[in-house]
Amino acid sequence: QVKLQQSGAELVKPGASVKLSCKTSGYTFSTSYMSWFKQIPGQSIEWIGMIYAGDGGTGYNQKFKGKATLTVDTSSSTAYMDLSSLTTEDSAVYFCARTPNWYFDFWGPGTMVTVSS
Amino acid sequence: DTVLTQSPALAVSPGERVTISCRASESVSTLMHWYQQKPGQQPTLLIYLASNLESGVPARFSGSGSGTDFTLTIDPVEADDTATYYCQQSWNELTFGSGTKLEIK
């Protein structure tokens, strides 16, 4: 069965960076797309960007260009998202989700990122 | 970006039929998808491409619409359907509606 496991909660200081992971199993990761999302508790969901595991090609929401960098490691079937120059506005839950056709059929449980001094 | 507008909240009794609407600011053809999110959990896919039921989702859920107006229907509603429901379009960029919080009385 398809599973997406995300890394644990992060508490980071303003100005720092953080790297989140999404380890997959149960399907062929190397020929799939993965998307990442931001959700502030109580608010809607924002799409950050997408990566194709086959060649590492990426597409980003303009709002998150320069903030998020998506990468993959096909040897471990894991997707990563780097978030840089963090501010309190980046405090949120971040999800990964498999993206078969510009919609999202399996989601990870999310990683809470708290930016605080 | 395409803006998706949803009514903020609905309250219905178990066994009733409920329709949740989503209006797009421009035509998205049938590139509309629906998700359910329970508190503290990740979203789950219910309907893709406007009317296709995702595998494993109960047949009580159905979707319809095209262009700018879309509907998610739950019939009959059960207590476990308490959640926030989001529409998402894939016509351009990828955007979500603000969500409709469904309360079961």
Describe the fold and architecture.
The complex is a heterodimer of chains A (about 120) and B (about 100). The mean pLDDT of chain A is about 95. In chain A, the strands form 2 sheets. In chain A, strands 2, 4, 5, 6, 9, 10 and 11 form a 7-stranded mixed β-sheet that branches. Chain A has a 4-stranded antiparallel β-sheet with strand order 1-3-8-7, with no helix packed on it. Chain A is about 0% helix and about 50% strand. Chain A has no helices and 11 strands. In chain B, the strands form 2 sheets. In chain B, strands 2, 4, 5, 6, 9, 10 and 11 form a 7-stranded mixed β-sheet that branches. The interface of A and B includes residues 97 and 110 of A.
> What share of the residues of chain B does DSSP label as strand, in percent?
over 45%
Oligomeric state, counting identical vs distinct chains: heterodimer
How many helices of chain B? The count is 0
**Which secondary-structure class do the elements of chain A indicate?**
mainly beta
Shape assignment of chain A: globular
Q: N- to C-terminal separation of chain A?
A: 40 Å
Shape descriptor of chain B reads globular
| Main beta-sheet annotation of chain A | 7 strands, mixed
Overall pLDDT of chain A, averaged?
97
The number of helical segments of chain A is 0
Number of strands of chain B: 11
Strand content of chain A: over 45%
Low-pLDDT parts of chain A are none
Q: What is the structural class of chain B? A: mainly beta
Largest interface: A-B, 19 and 21 residues
User: What percent of residues of chain B adopt helix (DSSP H or I)?
Assistant: under 10%
Defining key terms:
heterodimer; A: 117 residues; mainly beta; 0% helix; globular; B: 105 residues; 11 strands
What's this entry about, in short?
Chain A has 117 residues and is mainly beta. Helices cover 0% and strands 50% of the residues of chain A.
